[in-house]
Batch of 2 targets.
Target 1
Amino acid sequence: MKLTVAEKIIKDHLVTGDLIRGSEIGLKIDQTLTQDSTGTMAYLQFEAIGVDRVKTKKSVAYIDHNMLQTGPENADDHLYIQTVAKKYGIYFSKPGNGICHQVHLERFGVPGETLLGSDSHTPTCGGLGMLAIGAGGLDVAVAMAGGEYYITMPYIVKVGLTGKLNLGVSAKDIILEVLKRYKVVGGLNKIFEYTGEGVKSLSVPERATITNMGAELGATTSIFPSDEITYEFLKLQGREKEYKNIVADDGAFYDEEIIINLDELEPMVACPHSPDNVVSVSTLKDIKVNQVAIGSCTNSSYMDLMKVAEILDGKTISEDVSLVISPGSKQVLNMLAVNGGLSKLISAGARILESGCGPCIGMGQAPITDGISLRTFNRNFKGRCGTPSANVYLVSPEVAAVSALTGYITDPSIYMEDINIFMPERFLINDNLIVNPADYGEDIDIIRGPNIKPFPKSKELGREIKGKVLIKVRDDITTDHIMPSDAKLLPYRSNIPYLSDYCLTPCDIEFPKRAKENGGGIIVAGFNYGQGSSREHAALVPVYLGIKSIIAKSFARIHKQNLINNGIIPLVFENADDFNNIDMLDELAIENMLEQINEDKIIVNNRTKSKAYKLILDITERQRDMLKAGGLLNMKGE
Ligand code: SF4
């Protein structure tokens, strides 16, 4: 049988199921990663499972999201993660070592292996030919404990790249073009596999920019072949022994196919407030910029920042622009420092931030009120930057750098003529911010600061689910809406009771109070509920508030799994118009739940309006068992 790259890796890791599209498969996971904002909860859950050591080939705990340390909370969290890591056999990447996906690409990713990460941009390592998937913290905890990871066998989209990028056009523009075509929900249950002549002209970091932002398509993951370019990258990282050639067989079957001619691509921009709101830069006229932010796991590689340094070399940024740059890793920052790139950035007027997520997760550098911020990041949801009235445009490093000079969103093509950036002869390798796990963990004590609170667990499914509609929300509600993650809240990621006062408050400030007063209830939502990050807190906090079910027009993939893992029933309207027939505070009831849970269709009664609606419960048998038990941890006997 002729196989695609993704199918080859899936086949090698299949524990249950087959390569039949749409069927449930269980995968053996080789590597895991966590970051600090999801990590504390993932490790609390891992501890609750009760194994002595991780069973993966390699697991890494990164600290990259919250490094402001405005109080002891997140410093305490970091120490908890560090001690858990040491004890259980996990590498610990200290604050300052870089963004999890950038560092994982540089130092840990291995072609042909599976990677499960408690961060939605885990597919970044697909640029190396890994099958890299973002998941909730509990799924990652189970994988660390040796359990398989279940997904629906995705449909595979062939993205054929022909031609070669013109000057001023970059890998970011390729993924923006895919987002323009598929939109933020178009990738659901799909893997985007890149192939064709054009692939050969893209370095691994460029490929990683594309697979990284595949997350915005809602895709299961994105992947490139592992070829001579991959070998070259690994060699420059001193890891050529980990290379394995993985290319699709000639004549392999793809479920869909699109072609992007790189010769015809122009610099693109995703306009506010969605990553799929994509137009060519040349169509935007006279948009004045207040802030330019360069970095994030999408565009903070050595090559990206060297391009920026060369564009800015000898020039000064516009007096009306604030330019902030966060290098993706210590390796990137160190190399820029050694080869003079850093000096060019500083001389031009850039503010250099530490290697981490920084402004991408709203940790500082919020734009001015009503400001225009140009960012090389992957998300521009309203308010994510910390200023609710700001407008964020997503662009390539080239567009960002040139626009920082002109003060307006500018097509970089004519500014690029003398700019030539090549891969270095060798990356600067210094892993002294990575702490190795202890050989034996028995004697290691885990240090838990006062901010580490127990996580909430659901109860077994009862005979009836009933409750008031506590909130009705529109389409495309993100995990940022459900559980905001601004600088004020990020230190409390291991403190669910504290976070509960902020749940869904961007939609309705009274929601937490109403939920508590009513002893929990039901949420009603539009399409694509829970899009965005893998943030499990967007399920854990509703569990704490007593949410029993969410009835939506549709759900985002990772969030739906997180709800099921934590015992919240995700139901979909059979007739989407029924959304309009339910009002806030209507009393809903699902009777005979223990019988209905076994069915694909469920009837909910609206006792306030004396009406009934048909709902769809589109889940697997294993997920039904999980909901009956009240969540995955209950199934594990905890
Ligand atoms: Fe960090 Fe932003 Fe990437 Fe998330 S999307 S891992 S916050 S840089």
Target 2
Amino acid sequence: ERVGFAVVGLGRLSLEEILPAFGECKRARPVALVSGSPEKARLVAAQHGIKPEAVYGYADFDRIAENREIQAVYIILPNGLHRDYVLRAAKARKHVLCEKPMATSTAEAREMTAACDAAGVRLMVAYRCQYEPYNREVIRLVRSGELGAVRFIEATNTQTMGTADQWRFRKALAGGGALPDIGLYCLNSARALLGEEPVEVFARITNPKDDPRYREVEESISFMLRFPSGAIANCASSYGAHESKDLRVRLEKGWIDLENAFAYEGQQMRLAHREGKTEAVESVRLSRENQFALEIDHMAACVAQGRTPHTPGSEGVQDHQVMEAIYRSAETGAPVSLPTVAARDATR
Ligand code: NAD
């Protein structure tokens, strides 16, 4: 029996990626929709075999509690609304998969984990790259120690944006600009690769002059993370640079490049290491799978088996803590130290 999900929010990500990905899921199925546009929702419901009576509005969201087919909800709303809907979902006793960034502050993220713990429901942050096979392979290889210690991680996530009328340029709805939206992938990836938490961050923000889009949120941000092992991650993220979404790891005995690391598809992995006296450079090829379907199926398995997800709410809390330190550094122009946090369980 597949785990039934209510999809909350029918914007771009829901319509273009998530609902189609359910078609490739093995353990999950969409059983309800929550939307502000009843007509659109009825149409989408019909396309995905969802019963018309399982279409809800934001005002009557709390009625999902009465629908026993709904075991989990997938929150795909603007970031500033995640907190409210996660709290409402927990109150309805539904497990929650929440899009990234988890919230717009550490305080909100903590409130969300506490609410889900108190209600006895699972909370997972939709860090899709941690379910994507190439990213997983890079993490496995780095953690295996085969290539020695990590010296540098270079992570870049840039793209260009449209006009000023989007919620992503409103601080209240987005929480910030390029950092929480796409720079977050660089941060989350560096932490996952090393299985360590940064102890110091240093950051700079640059914004174009007189661009109405960047009155409330940043366009471009560069940040450095220093980890207890000595590894340094250099990360760059921008809403104003041609699309590039790459991850590079420089280790003692080799390097790993993952092109399109943070993209929906098109990952290309290359690996270099020394074999005897010769330098070997090889391409690594894995079977292509839909990372959104893998992510949703993981949540479904955790719900069915009563397990803690691989990317639980506490991961979102930690990323928000680091992002707040990054913003503080950019504001003050000085490095910011972070409290030493226990390293994550390396086996996860
Ligand atoms: P979007 O603007 O396309 O969709 C947002 C939806 O929320 C719309 O249907 C809109 O009608 C609805 N909404 C409800 N209340 C709203 C309000 N007060 N203001 C504005 N919209 C409101 O956005 P999106 O790109 O689908 O992003 C949704 C979430 O998914 C965000 O948290 C975003 O960070 C995340 N996202 C994740 C990925 C990923 O790769 N994992 C990719 C894109 C977006």
